[in-house]
């Protein structure tokens, strides 16, 4: 699916600012870019249009020889994180160009993608908001149990996708329709109204909507 251009950043945390009327606005502070363009793809040579961007400088010992050669084409150094953004039209960006927060402005609507906070192994009541068993007579020590999960002889198995206990969180989540409150190019910072997926210092991708 083709997307609009975006930028990589790190979620620093949440705070609040006051607008012109004195109302408190909760915002997420994101340190974004500068992100060098490490590869440009187009439909003629690659079959689709895309731009690959990088973030966070890396030491040479942490980057394989193949990736060192890949980064050398852009001439911007070595990096830890790469993301490819598919575009609907031929990319306007050039190899080695640096993308900064100046591509956004206050009032822009964006979507932010990140890894949600991992909650570990959780039971079905917390993971799926199940009500549990009744807490009255005849119900002993099974209040939070799964209960029946399958059929009898036929088909004799548990159907895939049944809501059960398991790993919760640590999934790729995209929050849509967020509004940029302020852009501070001198600090490479974007202030986004509302919450953003992921923990503090989590990697996020901000894209125009």
UniProtKB/TrEMBL annotation:
SUPFAM superfamilies on file: Translation proteins
A GO CC annotation given for this chain: cytosolic large ribosomal subunit
Tagged with keyword Zinc: no
A molecular function GO annotation: rRNA binding
Gene3D superfamilies: 3.30.160.810, Translation factors
Keyword Metal-binding: no
Pfam families to which the protein is assigned, alphabetical: Ribosomal_L3
Entry coiled-coil feature ranges: none
GO biological process, alphabetically ordered: translation
Keyword annotations: Ribonucleoprotein, Ribosomal protein, RNA-binding, rRNA-binding
Function (record text): One of the primary rRNA binding proteins, it binds directly near the 3'-end of the 23S rRNA, where it nucleates assembly of the 50S subunit.
Record family assignment: Belongs to the universal ribosomal protein uL3 family.
Subunit description: Part of the 50S ribosomal subunit. Forms a cluster with proteins L14 and L19.
Entry protein name: Large ribosomal subunit protein uL3
Gene name of the record: rplC
């Amino acid at each position: 699916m083709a997307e609009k251009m975006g930028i990589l950043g790190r979620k620093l945390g949440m705070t609040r600012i006051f607008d012109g009327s004195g109302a408190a606005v909760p915002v997420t502070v994101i340190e974004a870019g500068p992100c060098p363009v490490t590869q440009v793809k187009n439909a003629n040579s690659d079959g689709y249009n895309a731009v690959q961007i990088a973030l966070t400088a890396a030491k040479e010992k942490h980057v394989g020889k193949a990736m060192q050669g890949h980064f050398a084409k852009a001439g911007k150094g070595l990096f830890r994180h790469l993301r490819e953004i598919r575009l609907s039209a031929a990319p306007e960006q050039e190899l080695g160009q640096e993308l900064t927060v100046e591509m956004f402005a206050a009032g822009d609507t964006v979507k932010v993608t990140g890894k949600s906070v991992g909650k570990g192994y959780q039971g079905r009541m917390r993971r799926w908001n199940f009500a549990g068993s009744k807490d009255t007579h005849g119900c002993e020590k099974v209040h939070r149990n799964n209960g029946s999960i399958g059929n009898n002889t036929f088909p004799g198995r548990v159907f895939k996708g049944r809501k059960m206990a398991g790993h919760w969180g640590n999934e790729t989540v995209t929050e849509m329709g967020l509004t940029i409150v302020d852009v501070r190019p001198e600090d490479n910072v974007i202030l986004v109204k509302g919450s953003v997926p992921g923990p503090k210092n989590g990697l996020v991708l901000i894209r125009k909507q």
